[in-house]
């Protein structure tokens, strides 16, 4: 599975902790992340992550392009719904594309845990046939 990882600035430490907790599962898959998030996760987990640009430099658009090409199977996007960002439209595109292409997206730790456990059980293996 190809798993996309995105975290707003206020959620980056939470994403690091999440990836530490689920390193055993995440390490079995290809991970893609926006630049800063990917670097921070690598620093604490030693997981190999394909890094796009930082979000504010176009990383959200790069992730969207991968989703649109059906190259991402699931997205974990720990977002801060309170703070508005200049690149929010890039991230709104991520949500829309996930909905259009039936790609599961988790936007908080509770749904991220459910998604990761489903991936580990093989519940999303249908994505391989879908491609």
Report on this model:
- With 131 residues, the chain is α/β, with parallel strands linked by helices.
- It has a domain of 91 residues: Rossmann fold, CATH 3.40.50.
- It has seven helices and five strands, in the order βααβαβαβαβαα.
- It has a five-stranded parallel sheet with strand order 3-2-1-4-5, sandwiched between helices.
- α5 links the parallel β4 and β5.
- α1 packs across α3 and α4 runs parallel beside α5.
- The chain is globular and about 35 Å long.
Characterize this entry briefly.
It contains seven helices and five strands. With 131 residues, the chain is of the alpha/beta class. The chain is globular and about 35 Å long.
As a percent range, the share of strand residues is 15-25%
- Structural class determined from secondary elements: alpha/beta
Which residues form runs of ≥5 with pLDDT under 50?
none
The whole-number mean of residue pLDDT values reads 92
| Tally of individual helices | 7
- DSSP, total strands: 5
Helix share bin: 40-55%
Give the second-level CATH assignment, the architecture of one domain.
3-Layer(aba) Sandwich
CATH H-level name of one domain... which superfamily? Methylglyoxal synthase-like domain
Main β-sheet, spatial strand arrangement: 3-2-1-4-5
């Amino acid at each position: 599975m190809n798993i996309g990882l995105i975290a707003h600035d206020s959620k980056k430490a939470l994403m690091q902790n999440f990836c530490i907790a689920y390193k055993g599962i995440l390490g079995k898959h290809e991970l893609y992340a926006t630049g800063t998030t990917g670097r921070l996760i690598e620093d604490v987990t030693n997981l190999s992550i394909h890094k796009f640009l930082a979000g504010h430099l176009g990383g959200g658009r790069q992730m969207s392009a991968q989703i649109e090409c059906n190259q991402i199977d699931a997205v974990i996007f720990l977002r801060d719904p309170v703070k508005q960002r200049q690149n929010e439209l890039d991230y709104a595109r991520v949500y829309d594309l996930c909905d259009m292409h039936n790609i599961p997206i988790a936007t908080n730790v509770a749904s991220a845990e459910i998604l990761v456990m489903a991936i580990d059980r093989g519940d999303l293996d249908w994505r391989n046939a879908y491609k």
